[in-house]
Amino acid sequence: MTENNKNTSKGKILAVDDKQENLHVLIKILDKQGYDVFPAISGTQALSVVHSNKPDLILLDILMPDMNGYEVCEHLKADEQTRDIPIIFISALSETVDKVKAFSIGGVDYISKPFQVKEVLARVETHLSLQRLQKSLEEKNELLEQEIVARKRAEEAAQMANQAKSTFLANMSHELRTPLNAILGFAQLMSRTQRLDPENKENLAIISRSGKHLLTLINQVLDFSKIEAGRTTINESKFDLYALLNDLEELFSLKANDKDLQLIFDHYLNFPQYIIADEVKLRQILINLLNNALKFTQKGGVTVWVREKPIFDKGVVSKILFHFKIEDTGPGIPPDELTTIFEAFVQTSTGRQTCEGTGLGLAISHQFVQLMGGELTVSSQFGEGTTFEFSLQCQLAEAIDVKNTKIEKEVIALEPNQSRYRILIVDDKWMNRQLLMKLLNPLGFEVREAENGQEAIEIWEKWEPHLIWMDMQMPVMDGFEATRQIKAHIKGQATIIIIMTASVLEEERVVILDAGCDDFLRKPFKNADIFDLMHKHIGVRYLYEEESKPNGDEEESKPNGDEEITIAELKSEMLTTLPDDLLKQWQEAVEYGDLQTALSLIDRIGENNKSLANTLSKLAKDFRFDILQEVFDEW
Ligand code: ADP
Fold first, then answer.
1. Domain spanning 237-401: which CATH class is it, in words?
2. C-alpha closest to that of 426 among 504, 517, 318
3. Which of 246, 239, 236 is nearest to 274 (CA)?
4. Whole-number pLDDT of residue 288
5. Is 520 helix (H, G, I), strand (E, B) or coil?
6. What would the mean pLDDT of 488-498 be, rounded to a whole number?
7. How many angstroms separate the Cα of 251 from the Cα of each of 90, 243, 290, 541?
8. Which residue owns the Cα nearest ligand 1 atom 3?
9. Ligand 1 centroid from CA 301, angstroms
10. Helices vs strands, H then E, count in the chain
11. Confidence of residue 547 (pLDDT cuts 50, 70, 90)
12. Considering only CA atoms, which residue is closest to atom 7 of ligand 1?
């Protein structure tokens, strides 16, 4: 090979043959084609040069004195450093068995002597390019493996960081919620006393409002961290969607009134009211969107619009697709800010002016809707208003499955003729014990306190309380351990233990219940939660403010005529109870949107059917002639 083309060699080849003339021919033809060829006159020589000058390919004669080509090949294949060099045998042996042996010991090809120059070149070229391809594949593989290892390490590091974040979350949540529990709880207790003058009542209301605001902020930050750490789960339950919407209407109508805004809940639909979904998250999403809409809107109003569409499976309704829309006539959002609105900590110029909020509400709502299988979107006309909307697919539930959410009334005393209940409060913080003591003592419970799990076990053994309110994190012995020890006794099975936790982590619920606790309550709690849990587990019955009657399980009677009614029900009610002439007059009044005539007709309807009159009157007074008109659409 000439000096010139050495640098551009097409590959390095070792030619092994005991005959000089054969070597000479091979070197000549290969060198001419630009290969870098070096010879070995025996097997032994080949094995020694191969290490100092590693070739890309070996042409190997078989019949040689001392060591034949097969043996040379076997040595090369046994050596880690040379086993990958492709070997082409060149031999005068032409029996099939010779060729088979050549391949079986690791040769890649076989050329019979006397050889054709073109054949040698073609085979050498093929195997060298195969070799090159294999090398590049191996290199790529190695790179890939390195990448996988690096990724795995990064994943592990991220997992550890997430774990650290969760622990931080749990601790922070505990640290922040515990004092908040005391602030909100004592404020609630104080508001029960009659002796407060109006100014102090107002001050107390401010403490309460600020505490609740702080709780919302803490919850938002925690919610967001939980989403980021991938620890948010969907907790579905059966609930009454009508009741949820009515609750929200009640909750926000005061705020809307204060700002002189119109708040319309447009959900007079045929949709079934009992559904299966994550009620807590849906409520949080709607509260957040409504809060924003009312916060930013200065004139006009806010509409919550809900529509339904059945989804059929094999001819039967399997699910319902609910479409929620929250529209406002507020300042709107500029187009360039619309794209980032769902990012965390983003506030638009309007938002920043209010000097309120964290910029987390929409990010959380967006993620919650996504977790529930929908997509929260926004559209806005700057200067005219904003619309947020999303759809959710929900399964239907039977009415009987749904828990009746009772209106919260103030407990004023225990119902007479009950056992004298012994309640043990276990908490290392004096303030927390005081809160429960002051709530339960005046009502006539026998209450005792313990500062840690150890003390709780001692009191429990002698005093046998009906129920224990148990804090989780305490020195000496924590709530888990105390619960485990108490529940290990037969007599302990009869004691109800409810854990109080300031943690927000859903997975802790499983650990708590595993320890043998009967229930758990998150801090900060409402007084009503305490009373409800005692009713649920040991059957305590109360007397309430206003009605002063027992809270048995009897059905709550709704105020006459105030029930929600669907269009279909309204239609059938009107058809069956109204005489033809009255119906005709009513239809005319509705068509013309004539409120005065409608109201006088409602008076006449009320003489025979008070509940129908109430429903129609509510709709007419709300100017919902569109709904009243719908009744006649498919008459
Ligand atoms: P926060 O309200 O706590 O600041 P959000 O994530 O709920 O956080 O909202 C982010 C920002 O989006 C708000 O600060 C405000 O700039 C803008 N925004 C949200 N809702 C509306 C709305 N209905 N009209 C106008 N701007 C809105």
1. alpha beta
2. 517
3. 239
4. 92
5. strand
6. 89
7. 94, 12, 10, 28
8. 357
9. 16
10. 23, 19
11. very low
12. 361
Q: With pLDDT > 90 as the criterion, what percentage of the chain qualifies? A: 39
223: three-class secondary structure by DSSP: helix
**How far, in Å, is the centroid of ligand 1 from the Cα of 239?**
29
Pocket flag, ligand 1, residue 342 (CB < 6 Å)? no
Q: What is the mean pLDDT of residues 516-536?
A: 85
Among 303, 378, 302, residue whose Cα is nearest residue 346: 378
**Alpha carbon distance 3, 66 (integer Å):** 35
Q: Does domain 411-544 fall into CATH 3.40.50.2300?
A: yes
Ligand 1 pocket, mutate which of 362, 381, 386, 388 (most atoms under 8 A from CB): 362
> Using a 6 Å cutoff on CB, does residue 348 contact ligand 1?
yes
Closest residue to atom 22 of ligand 1, CA basis:
293
Query: Which of 292, 329, 346, 356 to mutate for ligand 1's pocket (most ligand atoms within 8 Å of CB)?
Result: 292
Bridge-based pairing of strands 36-40 and 12-16 is parallel
Report how far residue 515's alpha carbon sits from residue 245's, in angstroms, rounded to the nearest whole number: 37
* Predicted TM-score of the model (pTM): 0.49
User: What is the pLDDT averaged over residues 387-393?
Assistant: 95
pLDDT tens sequence across 9-68? 789 999 999 999 999 999 999 999 999 999 999 999 999 999 999 999 999 999 999 899
Distance 347 CA to ligand 1 centre (A): 6
Which atom of ligand 1 is found nearest the CA of 342?
A: 6
For ligand 1, whether the C-beta of 386 sits within 6 Å is: yes
In order of 76, 284, 572, the CA distances from 12 in angstroms are 17, 73, 96
Nearest atom in ligand 1 to the alpha carbon of residue 362 is: 6
Instruction: Specify the residue with its C-alpha closest to ligand 1, atom 2.
Output: 357
CATH 3.40.50.2300 spans which residues of the chain? 3-115, 411-544
pLDDT of residue 19: 93
Q: What is the position in ligand 1's atom list of the atom closest to the CA of 341?
A: 12
Residue 53, both tokens: 């000058």
Every domain of the chain with CATH number 3.30.565.10 lies at: 237-401
Residue 326 Cα to ligand 1 midpoint, Å, equals 13
Mean per-residue pLDDT over the chain, rounded: 83
Q: Is the CB of 361 under 6 A from ligand 1?
A: yes
The three-class DSSP label of residue 111 is strand
Say how far apart CA 382 and CA 419 lie, in whole Å. 65
Report the alpha-carbon distance of residue 173 to residue 179 in Å, rounded. 11
pLDDT over 80 (residue 355): no
Ligand 1 binding pocket includes 452 (Cβ within 6 Å): no
DSSP-based three-state secondary structure for 88: strand
CA distance 509 to 19: 85
Q: Encode pLDDT of 588-617 as tens digits.
A: 877 776 777 788 888 888 888 888 888 888
Q: Counting beta carbons within 10 angstroms of the beta carbon of residue 202, is it exposed (0 to 12), middle (13 to 18) or buried (19 or more)? A: exposed
Instruction: Report how far ligand 1's centroid is from the alpha carbon of 266 (Å).
Output: 23
Which of 70-74, 238-242, 249-253, 513-517 is predicted least confidently? 513-517
Give 403 Cα–ligand 1 centroid separation in angstroms: 34
Q: Which fold has domain 3-115?
A: Rossmann fold (3.40.50)
The minimum-distance atom of ligand 1 relative to the CA of 357 is 3
